[in-house]
Amino acid sequence: MSLGEFHHFGVPTKAKSKGETYLEGAKLYLTDPAAHPFRVEFLRFMDDSPMPEKLRTWPHAAFVVPDMDAALKGRNVVIAPFDATDEFRCAFIQDGDALIEVMVRRK
Fold it and tell me: How big, in percent rounded to 5, are the helix, strand and coil portions of the chain?
């Protein structure tokens, strides 16, 4: 049973990408997955980024879910829920060797 709808595939990179946006608190540049034909989001972290190493080095799949609590229940939470944008609240979980971003639309 699927918990949500695919949103994007996140790929850490060292290369600068066209159209990057800087997130100061995370010390991270990222691209808009909606602008990529395969919904890829490139993430370029500054050396002193406070984000966990797994997020800085592992690719991730992201899914929009209807209920954050249900999606996280019984899961290995790597990054607790946080307000990522005006539109989304996000969290990251690890399932085996897979890193997964769980996103819920903010109301």
Answer: 15, 45, 40
